[in-house]
Amino acid sequence: MLWDWESWWALEQVFRPSVDLNFKERQLAYYEQLWRAHVQVDFAHPADDLSGYRLIVVPQMYLCREQWGKNLRDYVAGGGTLVVSYFSGIVDEDDAIHLGGYPGVLRDLLGLTVGEFLPLRSGEQVALTASGQAHGGVWTEEIELHGAEAVYRYKDGPAAGGPAVTRHRREQGTVWYVSTNPDPGTLREILRAAAADAGVEFDTRTPGTLELVERRSAAGARFQFLINHGEYAAPVPSPGLDLLTGQVCTPADLVPGGAVRVLRLDERP
Fold first, then answer.
1. Residues 148-177: what's their mean pLDDT?
2. Which tens digit of pLDDT belongs to each residue from 167-197?
3. How far, rounded to the nearest angstrom, does the alpha carbon of residue 269 sit from its chain's CA centroid?
4. Separation of alpha carbons 167 and 163, rounded Å
5. Domains plus CATH for the chain?
6. Which helix (H) or strand (E) holds 74?
7. C-alpha angle 14-16-19 in degrees, rounded to nearest 5
8. What share of residues in the chain are helix, strand, coil (percent, to 5)?
9. Would the pLDDT of 132 be above 80?
10. Is the pLDDT at 53 greater than 80, yes or no?
């Protein structure tokens, strides 16, 4: 997940199209869905070497330097999967708008042009096409596709009939664009589909209250850290030796509510 302080500061200055634009809220919303699906997340800067990641998520990057845009283009060209949320790529490091149309430096990468920003009133929602009940809030856009395909469309609201969530196959990679603030369930499904493009699995078997982080030592040993944030016990996802108790754990064992286990995977005492 990409994070930049300058972009946060620039977004939340005065005279933006909506007072509901909120950098940290978008970061937390995307992070929560990945966390509950047990997808391990690193935070990186847009100028970092991103080539080692299969999936990059950009919940908000209003301020985007030209070099950052090139970095993301190179990442996608190399086979990466990118997810970008609305009102990103708009201005440069001096808060000057990128010329050529919105979303600025990311326009060609996303395979679309935003003709008009259509922010919603406080509390207003729009319906999205989906198999279930899907809604967006805070923001919508009038989008013209230039290579991207519409995955979700707006059913109603100021952009009714137009693309809401798009997918663009570019060179060896794939780029997703989310032009509204989806409800949590819809955001989860969007991220699940993008993760599938990247070959990243959403774990739907392990309870969302069980935090699961896996690390590997320089020697290749695998360690799994389990923290149960919930009230009820949750099953151990993988067999291993609990380094805190010396107990061999299997999926038949439990992590009690509020408890912690640190497993060395596939090891026996």
1. 97
2. 999 999 999 999 999 999 999 999 999 999 9
3. 39
4. 10
5. 5-198 (3.40.50.880), 210-265 (2.60.40.1180)
6. helix 66-77
7. 80
8. 20, 30, 50
9. no
10. yes
Residue 235 three-state SS: strand
In Å, how far from its chain's centre is CA 254? 30
Q: Which DSSP category does 105 fall into? A: G
Q: Which helix (H) or strand (E) segment is 27 a member of?
A: helix 23-36
Query: Quick one: what percent of the chain has pLDDT higher than 90?
Result: 88
16: nearest Cα among 68, 86, 85: 86
Taking the C-alpha atoms of residue 46 and residue 75, their distance in angstroms, rounded to an integer, is 11
Whether the Cβ atoms of residue 194 and residue 83 lie closer than 8 Å to each other? yes
CA–CA distance, 169 with 179 (Å, rounded to integer): 17
Q: Which residue has the tokens 């949750």?
A: 234
pLDDT reported for residue 267: 62
Please give the distance of CA 44 from its chain centroid, rounded to a whole number. 13
Residue with tokens 């935003």, as numbered in its chain: 114
92, two tokens:
């440069």
Question: What is the layout of strands, in order, in the sheet containing 248-249?
Answer: 210-216, 222-228, 260-265, 240-242, 248-249
pLDDT tier, 269 (very low <50, low <70, confident <90, very high otherwise): very low
